């Protein structure tokens, strides 16, 4: 059964590119969202295995959305952002992200980032972790 991915990015062309790459790699794209409120609702409804999460979005930023999703329905999340400052990366990871990529993201970076995030997320769920 393919891994189910939800894409959250307010730039439509970026979300479409991620979707095409994910499908080519064998993942199932179950939906997309253009802001943090939409991704929260979609995560609760769709229960994806993984979320690709932009940080800079309208209504609710990606770090706040990650924190809320992690509290409501823990999910592996890869944050994708133009921000590379250590404080931003740390804030995303503290909020519950399992991975972080800095834009621009190449197709070759997605698969290892997803694999790493799913592995880290599974480790958090393991007994005694």
Task: Kindly describe this structure.
- With 129 residues, the protein is of the alpha/beta class.
- The protein has one domain: Rossmann fold.
- The protein is 50% helix and 20% strand.
- It has five helices and five strands; from the N terminus they run E-H-E-H-E-H-E-H-E-H.
- The chain has helices at residues 12-24, 36-46, 62-72, 86-95, 107-125; strands spanning 4-8, 28-33, 50-54, 76-81, 99-102.
- Strands 2-1-3-4-5 form a five-stranded parallel β-sheet, sandwiched between helices.
- Strand 4, helix 4 and strand 5 form a beta-alpha-beta unit.
- Helix 2 runs parallel beside helix 3 (62-72) and helix 3 runs parallel beside helix 4.
- The longest helix is centred in the C-terminal third of the chain and has 19 residues, at 107-125.
- The two termini are 26 Å apart.
- The mean pLDDT is 94.
Strand content: 15-25%
Most strands sheet: 5 strands, parallel
Number of alpha- plus pi-helical segments: 5
CATH architecture: 3-Layer(aba) Sandwich
Strand count: 5
Secondary-structure element pattern, one letter each: EHEHEHEHEH
Task: Give the overall shape.
Answer: globular
Percent helix: 40-55%
CATH topology: Rossmann fold
The averaged pLDDT comes out at 94
User: Compute the gyration radius: what is it?
Assistant: 13 Å
Provide tags for this entry.
129 residues, alpha/beta, Rossmann fold, five-stranded parallel sheet, 5 helices
């Amino acid at each position: 059964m393919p891994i189910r991915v939800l894409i959250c990015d307010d730039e439509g062309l970026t979300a479409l590119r991620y979707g095409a790459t994910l499908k080519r790699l064998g993942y199932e794209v179950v939906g997309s969202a253009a802001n943090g409120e939409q991704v929260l609702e979609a995560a609760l409804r769709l229960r994806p295995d993984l979320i690709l999460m932009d940080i800079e979005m309208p209504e609710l930023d990606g770090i706040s959305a990650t924190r809320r999703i992690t509290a409501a329905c823990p999910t592996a999340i890869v944050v994708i952002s133009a921000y590379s400052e250590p404080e931003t990366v740390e804030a995303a990871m503290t909020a519950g992200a399992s991975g972080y990529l800095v834009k621009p993201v190449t197709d070759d970076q997605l698969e290892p980032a997803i694999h790493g995030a799913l592995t880290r997320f599974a480790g958090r769920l393991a007994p005694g972790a």
